[in-house]
Amino acid sequence: xxxxxxxxxxxxxxxxxxxxxxxxxxxxxxxxxxxxxxxxxxxxxxxxxxxxxxxxxxxxxxxxxxxxxxxxxxxxxxxxxxxxxxxxxxxxxxxxxxxxxxxxxxxxxxxxxxxxxxxxxxxxxxxxxxxxxxxxxxxxxxxxxxxxxxxxxxxxxxxxxxxxxxxxxxxx
Length: 172
What we know:
Layout: H1 12-18, H2 30-53, H3 66-76, H4 85-97, H5 101-136, H6 145-153
Helix pairs in contact: 3-6, 4-5, 5-6
């Protein structure tokens, strides 16, 4: 057995009072917290607006630079099969619920056809982008630009970020 400590165990209230408690941050009032949240919300909204406008400073690193801007404009100036993939999948979802076997089979064939054509379109788009970048920006690396362009082309035009700056069919 160990020796006794020689004093009674302090009550919780006494122990808590003796504890050295140091706040890590100054206590903020409710109004200050509300104001801080409001300012953060406004700041995020301004940052999002700048991103959607395509301001170079607001873009993430993967979207910055004149070459990436060219790729975005090149993709936005054309129609792509990939941008219709999501609406087609929603249609396929409804078609598979129909209890007619031929409709369900047609839905599956439609889904895989659009997927295959989307991939083919992406391959050709990637090659075109790399060829255009090599001719317009000689000496610059085209690594990753094809995939960047293809992924942008698979998004619905209205949902692309940053927002498209060129009209469809315009010459780039």
